[in-house]
Automatic annotation (TrEMBL):
This is Methyltransferase FkbM domain-containing protein. SUPFAM superfamilies: S-adenosyl-L-methionine-dependent methyltransferases (SSF53335). Keywords: Signal. It comes from Prymnesium parvum (Toxic golden alga). Residues 1-20 form the signal peptide. The lineage of its organism: Eukaryota, Haptista, Haptophyta, Prymnesiophyceae, Prymnesiales.
Length: 305
């Protein structure tokens, strides 16, 4: 085959989808880093208001159209999981705030519809975590990955193997003490996350849960491992008290990063809290500035002068 023809054939293959994977190659020039929020609900991670080099990409298949638009926030109406395709998704909580590809492990107020009716189900597009990460052009920094995937967090992150090391800062929703929010999923901090993330070269920095869930910062891997070695005893005590769900955000930092923590907070107090969760105590040196954001509740900031 003549070289010219080979080029043409390759071009045709590409045009038919036989070639390069899709890529976010038309982002505004000047963008150098990306915050990714999977399962954003109505409160996506927002880019700092005054730093035009940062964009945020939020994924939510149920409430995407209700997320208020913001500069440099991109909203993708899709679920993310270990594999792509099409799936049914249970819409839980009246506002779709905790919809999942999985079935709840128990019947509770948050997952039954009005007066006990079955929750509605939607058919949603699902992207593989790998395709999401690979779509971010390699020249861009993937500064933060925040997941709140209602049980799919661990399997999705584990599905990409060493590709996860593109991300220096990770916040993931985890389950604790062997309690399951959804059936058939592995998302336990001690059983699944901690051993895996240590193997992948991440430092466990903190666990931060609401209500009865633990709030802990870890001095190092051994501190987190000790916390986990005491998990079985705690688990029984929780069960005896009738606790069915225990969830928290886990904070991870890649072992070799020298980047500052991602700028994701609104109030000064929150800046300090979240920075501490990522193991950063001298946050003032980064001069982050609180920035008010939409949606209510979440705390995201910009970096000041
Ligand atoms: C970070 O973790 C990776 C993967 O476990 C490992 O190969 C590497 O040596 C570690 N680097 C540092 C600086 O600890
Ligand atoms: C803006 O964000 C970039 C990363 O995209 C970071 O390197 C830079 O320090 C930030 N600038 C300011 C002024 O915060």
């Amino acid at each position: 085959m003549r070289p010219g023809r080979l080029v043409l054939t390759l071009a045709l293959l590409r045009a038919r989808g036989g070639g390069a994977a899709p890529l976010l190659d038309q982002l505004p020039s000047g963008v150098t880093s990306v915050l990714i929020n999977i399962g954003s609900s109505l409160n996506p991670v927002l880019p700092p208001p005054e730093n035009r080099s940062v964009i945020s990409i939020a994924f939510d298949p149920i409430v995407a159209s209700e997320i208020r638009s913001k500069p440099r926030l991109y909203v993708v109406p899709a679920a993310v999981s270990e594999e792509g395709g099409l799936a049914t998704m249970g819409v839980y909580n009246a506002d779709g705030g905790s919809s999942s590809l999985l079935k709840p492990a128990m019947t509770a107020e948050w997952n039954v519809g009005f007066e006990g009716a079955l929750p509605p189900t939607k058919i949603v597009p699902v992207l593989s975590m790998q395709s999401v990460l690979e779509a971010i052009p390699p020249r861009l920094l993937l500064w933060l990955l925040k997941t709140d995937m209602q049980g799919k967090d661990f399997s999705a992150v584990a599905s990409v193997g060493s590709l996860i090391r593109r991300v220096p800062y990770i916040m993931s929703e985890v389950w604790l003490e062997n309690l399951h929010t959804y059936e058939g999923a592995s998302n336990d901090y001690c059983r699944d996350w901690l051993p895996y993330m240590l193997k992948m070269g991440y430092r466990p920095k903190a666990l931060h849960g609401g209500g009865r869930a633990p709030r802990r910062t870890f001095a190092g891997a051994s501190d987190a491992l000790t916390f986990c070695s005491q998990s079985t005893g705690r688990s029984q005590a929780r069960r005896n008290k009738g606790v069915e769900i225990l969830e928290a955000d886990a904070f991870w930092v890649r072992n070799d990063t020298s980047l500052p923590p991602p700028p994701i907070f609104i109030t000064k107090a929150a800046i300090n809290n979240e920075a501490i969760h990522f193991g950063v105590r001298d946050i003032d040196k980064y001069n982050y500035r609180p920035g008010l954001q939409s949606g209510g509740g979440n705390v995201w900031a910009g970096r000041g002068k």
